[in-house]
Structure formats: C-alpha cells, structure tokens
Amino acid sequence: MIELIPLIFVILIIIATVGLGVWATKRSKSASDFFVAGRTVGVGMNASAISGEYLSAASFMGVAGLVMRFGYDTLWYPVCYAAGYLFLLLFIAGPLRRFGAYTIPDFAEGRFDSPFFRKIAVIFVLFIGFFYTMPQMRGAGLVMKQIMGWPYWVGLTVVGAVITFNVAIGGMKGITFVQAFQYWVKLFAISIPVFVIMTVFGWYGSRMNDNVQNPGLFPQFKESHTLAVKGTEGAPANVLNATGPSSFTLGGTPQFTVNQPSVLAPGSVEGSTATLHVAPGAINAPTGTAIAAGQSIEPGTAVDVVLPGAIGGTDPVTAKVTLTKEAPSPVTFDLASNVPNAPHNEKWIRPFGDFTSKQGFPLLYTYSLIIGLVCGTAGLPHILVRFYTNPDGRAAKRTTFWVMVLIGVFYMFTPIWGTLGRAIIPNLYANNLTDAVVIDLPRALPSGLLGAILSGITCAGAFAAFMSTFSGLLVSMSGAVAHDIYGRILRPGASAESRLVAFKVASVAIGGISILLGLYVEEFDIAKMVGWAFAIGAASYFPLLLMGSWWRGLTMAGAATGMLAGGLLSVGSIVTVMVIDKNQLQGSLNPLARVLMEQPAIWAVPLSLILMYVISKMTAATVPADIDLKMLRLHAPEEMGLSKNYIEH
Amino acid sequence: MDPRLEHDIHSHPGHQRRLAQAVMRRQVSLSLKVAAVFLFMLLGLPLVNYFLPELANAPFLGFTATWFFLAVLFYPITWFLSWWFIRQSNDIEADIAANMRHENATPLHNKAEGEARH
Q1: Nearest residue of chain A to residue B74 (CA atoms)
Q2: Which of A65, A130, A317, A425 is most open to solvent, judged by the fewest CB atoms within 10 Å of its CB?
Q3: What integer best gives the mean pLDDT of chain A?
Q4: What is the rounded distance in angstroms from the CA atom of residue A44 to the CA atom of residue A181?
C-alpha cells in the first residue's frame, strides 16, 4: 500500500494540471489569448507562471543530483540559472517589450525588415525547443521508472500525451494558470520535505560542517549494501571507481572478469599498479594476491580494494575497476566500506573538483560554464515570449524582479538536497543515480509512511517541473509554427481562427515528435542536454538580441552570420564530445580542445558578437533606412506610444 | 500618441537619431553600472577561489566562506541589484517622457528646421 503513495500524488498532480487547464480554457477566448494571454495577466500571477515554466526537470532533479555528485563546482548551475535573469533585465527585456515584437522571429523581421531572417529565426526556435524538450522527456520516463518500475517509454508517453492535450485545448491562457500553480507546487515540494528530513538527520550547516571538519574522508555505506552491477551494455555503471579502501563481495552466478584494475593517482599512470586484492579466505586465490587485467573472479569472492596512497593519508587516490559480465548481478559492499564513484570531502566541498578539473584548465572551464549559463538564460525563446504577457513595461520589470526572487528561493534549496543526500544515502553514487536524490532521500526516514508521503510530494514536484517546462516549450514552438510558418509563409493573411486551428494541429504534431525524440535519448544525461539548449541560445539569440537592441549599425547579413556561426559551431562541438564519450566515434581530444568543445560559450559568444560587428561594417549600406525610428521604438518610454503592436487580433 | 510629436518624429530623421542616442545613453549607462557590480562578483569569485584558496575555504557558520557566498548570499545580492535597477530605470523613463513632452510644447519642427538652416 505504501508503495502506491507516490503514484497517487503523481495522479493528483496530473488531474490538477488538466483540470486547471480545462477551467482556464473557458476564460480563453480570442486568438491572442492563445499566443500571449492577451497581456492581461497580473504581476504576481505572471511572475509565478514564468518561474513555473522556467524550473524544469533539470532544476528540480538535476541540480540537486549534480551538487550531490560533484559538490561546489556545480553550484554555478543554480546561481547562473537565477542570475541570468539579471542580464535579461538589464539589457534585453525592456527594449524587446517596448519594440512590441513578442517572439524572436517578430524581432528578427521587425528589426531588419527581412522576412527571410524571420525564417532563419523560426528554425532556431524549433531547434532550441527540441533540444530542451528531450531532457524533460527523459526526466519523465526516469521518474516513472524509479517510482513505479514502469518501462521508460510508458512513463514518457503518458506524460507527453497529457501535456500535449492540455496545451492543445488551453493555449497560453490555460497554461498561465497551470504554470503559476505549478511553481507553488514545486516550491512546496523542494522545501517542506527537506525541512522534515533535516529535523531528523541534522541541519544543512552541520551536515556541511562534517565535510569541512573531515577533509580526507569518503562517504561510507551506512549498512551492508547490495549494488546491481549492470551487464556489459550498462556502461559506465559497471565501472567501480573505488575512491578509498573498500570491501565488497561479488554475487550472482556467472563469473566476473576484471578488465582494467588501475590506480589513478597523482604522478601514477593508469594501469601501473594492480589494486584489487582478494580477501583472506577467498576461493582460488591466496590473501593479498593482486588480480591482473583479464583475470576471472568466482562469484562469492570477497574483494578488498587496497589503495596504497589512501591509507593514513588524504591523497585523492582512485582505483578504476571495470567489471565485465553478461547479465546484471549483485555486488555486496560491506558496512562502512567507502562508496565507489564518490569524491572525498575536501574535493567535494572545494572549488575546482572533478567537474571542472578533469581535463586541467579548471578556471577556463568554470568561466565558460558561467558565460554559457548566464547568456543562455537571456536567450531562451520560451522565456522571452513571457515578457509580453505583462500589461506594460513597468509591470514587465516588476515581474522580472519577482521572478528572480521566486526562482532564487527555489534554487537555494537544491544544494541542501545534495548535501543531505551525500550524508544520508551515499549509495546513489555507486550506480550513478544521484539524479534521483530528491525522490529517494525522503524514503530514508525512519517512518515508512512519512517517507512515502514526502517522496510522493517530491515526485509530484518533479512532474510539475517537466509538465510546466514542456508546456511552455510546446506553446512557443507551436506558436512559431502557427504564427510564422503557417500564418506568414504558407498562407499569408490566414484568419485568426485558422491560425488557431494551425496552433492546435502544430502542438499535437510537436508533442508527438518530442515523445519520439524522448525515446531516442534514454541513455543521454539530463544536465548535458540542457547544456546544449543553453549553449545554442547563448551563442545565437543572445548576441542577436543584445546587438540588435543596442547597436544601430547591425545589419541583417551581420546578425544572420553571427547567429548561425555561433549557434551551429556550439552544437557541432558539443555533439562531437558526446559522440566521442559514447564511443561511437574513435579518437581522443587534446585536453584544452576538449574543454573548449564541452563548454563552447567562452569562444562561441565572442565569435558570434565579432562576426556580427565585422559583417555589419562590411554591409553598412544595408542598415534599414528607418533605423533611428526603430531605435526609438526599442528605447523610448512606452508612454510615448512609439511601440508598434505586432500582434494581429 | 500626440499627432504633432508623431509628425515630428517621422519627418526629422536627424532629430530621431539624436533623441534615440540620448535616450539609449542614459539607459545603457545605468545598465552597465549594475552589470559591472554583478560581473565583478560573478567573474571575481572564481579568481578568489583559485588564487586565495585559504580565504575562500575558511570555515564560516559550518560552511566554507565561498560555499556560503555562492549558495546562499549570492541570491539576495542579485535581488537587491535588480530592485535598485528597476527603481532607477523607472525614474529615467519618467524623466525622458517628461522631457519629450516638454520639447513637444515648443514645436519640434521649428527647432529642427532652425538647426538645419545653420
């Protein structure tokens, strides 16, 4: 019975979402309500809705998981997700709102009088949108798998279909209410359970202090723990990075083969030291015998990992053991054995740990990450469209302020989950399941019922997260299709009613494609996929909006070249890194090149800006004739009435 | 909008340009001021972490100083910057709007034509 509680919460949140959508639809009348909610939404409602839309599966599950796994380095994610809004407020929100263009394609066309540029911009809306929906879909499939044991594709299809239905009937007006509601669900789900957990397991500061006081220690298993080591296809989960001395017993029936016992330590080359020692009493091997690569170990063998550098010292010594085996089978770790795949306390709590230092160049990696996240936030199309749901410019600014407060409060809680997860359920490190920390942590409570209820609440929060973000993406992508591809390219002058039909058809089609894409990315990492969307936005839309708003000399040729070069080169380099990581492409990269390709913002954003400047100077004759009037529209206070309303009612 | 102002703005590109530049200059100087404070914090912190690790990792309320700054303090600081920017920005816009109305009271086209004759 208790196991069903999380499912009940998930069903409740789905019913509430659909019900609110249906209720709100009755109030949604005109075509412009569908696209921008008719600009009638109040500041509090709109700020909640923007925050609800922004906080995705990556924020709700991914950030807490990343902080648990890597520590300090990944604090930049929540900070920059929140702080990116300040950049948006300072340089982009005001001019765009005054200009009266409510999508990036509107801006692209209106600023350069170029229907051609509009088409390029529309393609980018769909491009970024699909990259950003894939991790949401994966989050949906993963949670259902985790709490219900459903196959990945079932959870994904159910969630995708529910959201698509909701958007198709309600449009923007419907989802404004739904998303505002979902923000408060998410805030409740990320905050209340963690307070309850802290009253039992200790407060944030004292749990952090454990790490500060014992820099050399590793997280240890709280009890004897059996870990399912996956078969050969489950890589990399079948790699045990023993980060300190530890003991485990191999179970199951088939034999294990140790592929590469090796020590990764300062000054030592991988593979130079054998590190796996079969424990006293083990079958087939005397005490202390080192196991060589390729040697078989019988099931039931107790294995001690002995790391010379780690005994009595704090050296970060890691043994990497790849166990190859055809079928999944259990490996049982002894009580108080160090958890594999976990960094030690000092490395976790200090800046420049594994996340940024793996290739060397930790400062470069950190800066590129910061630039990509901050500029990417300012360039996400589904966020920008929301600034037009305010009645006027002053309200738009107040809304932005409240959004920063609402998402900031939310993000403050995410590292608490990571910190407590590290202290209480470190077993998640062992099979790389730290993404599930918000779902699993409440279950560690002594009371099974309370744990199930709190876990149900966080499951509902996770559902609210991917439902609201996916809805927002679906609206902005369907809007682009109905408004731009149908209403301007395929059938110019189509009536508002037929564009409404196009919107509904487009949302169903795009929802279907998103589900298919979600099926394709089961093995990909949520945080990395979101990184793709941010990197494309940072190197394409951000330069376009920044230069387009503030430099009168920008020409269409310059803007298009910069946007395409920056966006496409970032996508290309990230995809290359992913393909290499998946071993689908042979070859290794120079460490510096790898850092620059994995985090391309540090070169792609300046490249895009420079190209825009240079090409615009070369084509200066094509600056629109009424550029000064356009600049006035972008910057003169709204009460002067210079804005042009691009929305046709 | 006032039809006379609209006529002036549409028929005097030189005036438009001066006006746009004046308005943008005031807006951008405010934005850059706030951005400078923000970027100083955001881009300065990794340097402190890298070059002054003792300071960054000093224990503070159970946390390290740099963890506390980034994971807790950073958010309220950005809220304050945002609040301050919005206040200043609204003042600037009200001021610009008042100036434009004031200029409009002494007909713009006479002034612009007078300048053109010189």
Answers
A1: A79
A2: A130
A3: 76
A4: 11
Q: Does the structure show a pLDDT above 80 at A3?
A: no
**Residue A314 β-bridge partners:** none
Query: Nearest C-alpha of chain A: how many angstroms from B1?
Result: 5
Complex prediction ipTM: 0.82
Contact predicate A323/A291, CB 8 Å: no
Structure tokens at A446: 């002594």
* Two structure tokens written together for B20: 């746009």
Radius of gyration of chain B (CA): 23
Portion 102-131 of A in contact with B at CB < 8 A: none
> Quick count: other Cβ atoms within 10 Å of Cβ A370?
24
Q: Residue A396: what residue type?
A: A
A41 pLDDT tier (thresholds 50, 70, 90): low
This prediction's pTM: 0.84
Point out which residues pair with A246 in neighbouring strands: A305
Chain A CB within 8 Å of residue B29 CB: no
Q: Which residues face A358 on adjacent strands?
A: A360
CB-based contact A61:A207 (threshold 8 Å): no
Cα–Cα distance list, A397 to A403, A592, B83 (Å) = 10, 41, 9
Best CA proximity match to A61, nearest among A463, A361, A432? A463
pLDDT for position A418:
93
Please report which helix (H) or strand (E) contains residue A318, including its range.
strand A318-324
Residue A290 pLDDT exceeds 70: no
pLDDT of residue A313: 38
**Residues paired with A100 in a beta bridge:** none
DSSP A279: P
Give A358's DSSP letter. B
Model pLDDT for residues A172-205, shown as the tens digit of each residue = 555 677 888 889 999 999 999 999 999 998 888 8
Closest CA to A86 of A483, A350, A488, A403: A403
User: Phi/psi at A488 (nearest 5 deg)?
Assistant: -120, -30
The angle subtended at Cα A469 by Cα A463 and Cα A470, nearest 5°, is 85
- Confidence band of A561 (pLDDT split at 50, 70, 90): very high
Residue B31 half-sphere exposure, CB side, CA atoms within 13 Å? 20
Plot region of A582 (φ>0 → left; ψ -120 to 50 → alpha; else → beta): alpha
Q: Is A396 on the interface with B (CB under 8 A)?
A: no
Question: Does residue B102 sit at the A interface (CB-CB below 8 Å)?
Answer: no
